[in-house]
Amino acid sequence: MIKKTICAAVTALCLAGTAKAAVNIAVIAPKSGDYSETARDLTEGVRTAVSEINAQGGLLGQSVNLIEVDDRCDDRFNVSMAQMMAVNSSAEDKVHLVIGPYCVNRFAEVAKIYGDGKILQIAPLPLDGEKMAVTQKGLIKLAGEERGQAAEFFEYYKLRFMNQNTALVYDANLRSAVEIAAAVQQKFADARLSNRLTSYNFANYGKDYEQLAAEILLNNRVVYVLGTSKDTAKLTREIGRLRDGTAVFANRYGLKENYTDIVSAGQEGLYYLALENLRDNPQFAEILVRLRLKGQEPRGFGVYGYLSVMLWKKLVTQANSFDYDAAAKTAATAEFSLPWGRVRFRDGKPDKSAPYGVYGFQNGEYAQVY
Q1: 3-state secondary structure of 122
Q2: Domain count, the chain
Q3: I need a surface site. Which of 55, 85, 118, 279 has the fewest CB within 10 A?
Q4: Domain that holds residue 327
């Protein structure tokens, strides 16, 4: 049985189904290591949605059995796990949906394996342009493009820092960093504010964070850093040492959990860009009230884990079947109501990406400020 196999092989947590027939879905995310905190939120959101479905009597007469897979952010493991799931086709062992994996360096390869195995896949995190271009029947990229954060950064800049000089620091070897940087540069250009933006490439400074920080602070009051977690943290710390309170922005999904530890907790002026928590979104209000009545408060990325399961529920309900082809056809042709509007998926890509928010460090933790 796949539930026993996965539990034994990868120490996944398998939540047993009820006595009636069950349909299997899986969430793949690290439970320990550099990205465990945000990944844990994702898993909790998925678990909450599954519990809600089962409490309401299941889906199409079947309960939902959740398989939680700890992939340790290992790309090789994700490939082998996809292969393992794809060959299990019996009614009892078949996995109908995979949410994730959280770490997506081999995204195209993994997506093809799931597609060939007739397993629906929902990618809940925002993706770079290369991964957004991956087409595979049954693949849904829920959140859309990560370069969308550039728009939210620019709107917050206009609100709080208008006409202040801004440094854009990026790693030219990171595709996502280059794409987000290009989007930021375009926003400033469109607003005729290019003279307020200066770009810096990490590669031109080696590991001399002190020199880079010193040059940035000569003329800039706002800094947007797009690099590896280590580079971002070390540069942020150096900026804080030279001038505490400088507004420094970073991409949350490129940061490891020890980011605030490295830059020292409590450094003023730290912000990051991440998907909105949707708590103030009127279209999410009904869901939020329902969850709170059960004593559950969706955190961080947990909202998007929850929405991934509920999107799958809509697919299955509209298709009136767990059949892969029927559900995939519905995904490609139907329109869905999500908290950020009516959305259609073309080649798995949403015509409206999930909104980003700006989070600031306040009272020892990050809270959405815009």
Answers
A1: strand
A2: 2
A3: 55
A4: 2-123+281-353
Cβ atoms within 10 Å of 212's Cβ, excluding its own: 23
Question: CA 313 to CA 60: how far, in whole Å?
Answer: 10
Same domain for 27 and 98, yes or no, is: yes
Q: What is the pLDDT along the chain (370 residues), one digit of tens a residue?
A: 444 444 433 433 343 333 457 999 999 999 887 777 778 888 989 999 999 999 999 999 999 999 999 988 888 999 999 999 999 878 888 999 999 998 898 999 999 999 999 999 999 999 999 999 999 999 999 999 999 999 999 999 999 999 999 999 999 999 999 999 999 999 999 999 999 999 999 999 999 999 999 999 999 999 999 999 999 999 999 999 999 889 999 998 888 877 777 776 667 789 999 998 887 777 777 777 777 776 666 667 888 999 999 999 999 999 999 999 999 999 999 999 998 999 999 999 999 999 999 998 777 677 889 9
pTM of the complete model: 0.89
Cα 314 versus chain centre, distance: 21
Pick from 7, 2, 14, 26: which is nearest to 99 by CA? 26
